[in-house]
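Duplicate of #3305? Posting structure anyway:
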């Protein structure tokens, strides 16, 4: 069946802020088998409705023509689908809200025997245990907004959480989702909280996994002290997690102060000249900082969060998230500039960036949101589905806290110099902002389980050979998809980072949900990065039985049919050498498959 959507049409619509709806929980362009022009999957489980549905990711760079899709009502139906897929040569791809960039669901244009499994319609149950210690058990299709709202009502919250509310728990765990926080000077971590990834809070999780005793996929629950869980805590889409139990801590009230007055040169000054307004000085005072800087402007949108049990007199109390409404839509003048830039008039980039900052400054004033205070999630969540759609690269730079200022200063100098050189050549490869956040690394003890296992593939997994590294500086560069010269610029930037942040100073890891492995013409396409740099980033300094290669072996052992994979993941995470490929006998040569739940 020919695609109902062209990638170019999706990109054009996304660039001017049109929300197409494919990343939402309601099906888009759903076509029943009776109306479809291609045959329905053979022997598909009769109790599970199946339909054709198109898909596009957050930035519009990955577009799938209508694929067979279903929405299982419970975990047992996922097991039924897994065994059907293995028997019939299909693959299952768990779909959440689609708020991502990288091809972990499927690469651009993928087709064939792919079944998209929508987790957002039914796999959304939440159960809170208010014991000591407290925990929440949630299914993978629940959104972070839904999860955080539920735990807030019970008196709990998270220290780190991604800014969008429309991401699912399953998606967040797959990529090691994070927020922005490290302890301020004198601050101590509170029980049930972590400064690392959300995956680091997992106490146990249930996955659809192959069981050799019954030669079938079953539900298997892994405890946090089971060595095998390490590969599932951050799995990049190579597993299907049906539910997870996370440790919870007492909720806190946060104050978030925004400004657009601190010069970028002061924030990102060299360590030798850094003053009271430097990035690291703000971290020392509050521990929670985010900067959003458009390179041709003088000052970024600076956000500084601080723990504030009592409402400051100057702060505005907020009882809902997404308070920066000026960032939720695209005004007419901005839309016209975007159209000019996307059509090739790059010289409009500085004007666009100045206009964006002017809108931000005015928006903070008119909405009275430069100083807000409330429960944690109401200041942490601010990205809506209608926010301007852009593409982004993304990396975590592991370093010692004492070197954070050096890390951001080095990159600021590189970026300013590089973009000036492009501008002098009449080129503008980057029209969005440079965003910077900071988190701690994953400390497995934060989950409260004795002998807890590290998330093996987490971008913020500690390096035992570099014990001084305790911080991750998260950076991403945003631009409109298909901006001229952007792919070359992204490749040059990645190569500079990989060659600069080395040795005992720092190390680079990919932010799984975003762009990396730039070939110069495409993201996720550079063989040397896919085959060496990325795996090595999770090999170096790690024990052989708990590194990149060990994780791939574990994931293959529990999914020998690789039904939870795609063509891109087959390249990034190939079958380990020597691994056997167990093939189920044809459906007619065996009895009904069991629906078992194994616990370890």
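Output from current build:
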């Amino acid at each position: 069946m020919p695609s109902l959507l062209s990638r170019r049409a999706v990109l054009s619509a996304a660039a001017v802020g049109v929300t197409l709806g494919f990343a939402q929980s309601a099906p888009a362009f759903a076509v029943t088998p009776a109306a479809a022009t291609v045959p329905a999957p053979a022997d598909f489980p009769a109790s599970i409705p199946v339909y054709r549905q198109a898909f596009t990711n957050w930035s519009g760079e990955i577009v799938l023509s209508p694929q067979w899709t279903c929405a299982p009502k419970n975990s047992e139906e996922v097991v039924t689908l897994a065994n059907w897929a293995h028997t019939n040569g299909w693959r299952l791809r768990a779909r959440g809200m689609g708020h991502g960039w990288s091809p972990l669901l499927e690469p651009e244009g993928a087709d064939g025997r792919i079944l998209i499994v929508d987790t957002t319609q039914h796999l959304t149950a939440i159960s809170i245990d208010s014991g000591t210690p407290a925990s929440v058990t949630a299914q993978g299709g629940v959104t972070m907004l839904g999860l955080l709202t539920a735990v807030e009502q019970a008196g709990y919250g998270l220290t780190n959480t991604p800014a969008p509310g429309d991401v699912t728990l399953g998606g967040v765990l797959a990529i090691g989702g994070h927020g922005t926080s490290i302890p301020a000077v004198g601050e101590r971590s509170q029980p049930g909280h972590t400064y690392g990834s959300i995956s680091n809070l997992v106490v146990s999780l249930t996955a659809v996994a192959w069981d050799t005793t019954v030669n079938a996929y079953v539900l298997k629950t892994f405890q946090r002290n089971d060595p095998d869980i390490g590969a599932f805590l951050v799995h990049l889409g190579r597993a299907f997690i049906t539910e997870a139990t996370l440790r919870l801590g007492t909720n806190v009230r946060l104050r978030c102060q925004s400004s657009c007055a601190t010069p970028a040169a002061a924030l990102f000054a060299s360590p030798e000249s850094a003053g009271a307004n430097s990035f690291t000085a703000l971290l020392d005072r509050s521990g929670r900082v985010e900067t959003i800087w458009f390179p041709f402007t003088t000052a970024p949108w600076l956000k500084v969060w601080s723990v504030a049990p009592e409402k400051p007199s100057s702060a505005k109390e907020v009882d809902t998230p997404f308070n920066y409404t000026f960032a939720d839509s695209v005004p007419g003048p901005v839309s016209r500039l975007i159209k000019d830039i996307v059509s090739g008039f790059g010289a409009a980039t500085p004007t666009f960036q100045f206009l964006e900052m002017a809108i931000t400054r005015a928006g903070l004033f008119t909405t009275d949101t430069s100083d807000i205070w409330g429960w944690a999630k109401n200041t942490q969540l601010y990205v809506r589905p209608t926010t301007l759609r852009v593409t982004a690269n993304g990396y975590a730079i592991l370093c010692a806290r004492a070197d954070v200022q050096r890390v951001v200063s080095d990159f600021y100098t590189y970026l300013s110099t590089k973009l000036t050189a492009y501008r002098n050549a009449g080129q503008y490869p980057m029209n969005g902002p440079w965003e910077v956040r900071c988190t701690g690394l994953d400390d497995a003890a934060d989950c409260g389980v004795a002998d807890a296992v590290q998330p093996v593939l987490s971008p913020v997994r500690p390096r035992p050979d570099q014990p001084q590294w305790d911080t991750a500086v998260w950076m991403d560069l945003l631009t409109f998809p298909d901006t001229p010269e952007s792919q070359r610029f992204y490749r040059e930037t990645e190569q500079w980072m990989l060659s600069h942040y080395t040795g005992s100073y720092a190390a680079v890891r990919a932010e799984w949900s975003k762009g990396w492995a730039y070939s110069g013409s495409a993201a996720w396409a550079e063989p040397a990065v896919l085959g060496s740099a990325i795996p090595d980033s999770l090999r170096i300094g790690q024990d052989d039985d708990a590194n990149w290669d060990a994780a791939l072996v574990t994931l293959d052992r529990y999914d020998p049919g690789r039904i939870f994979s795609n063509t891109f993941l087959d390249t990034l995470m190939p079958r380990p050498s020597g691994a056997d490929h167990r093939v189920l006998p044809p459906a007619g040569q065996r009895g009904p498959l069991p629906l078992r739940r194994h616990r370890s």
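Confirmed duplicate; merging threads. The first strand starts at residue 50 and ends at 56. The radius of gyration is 23 Å.
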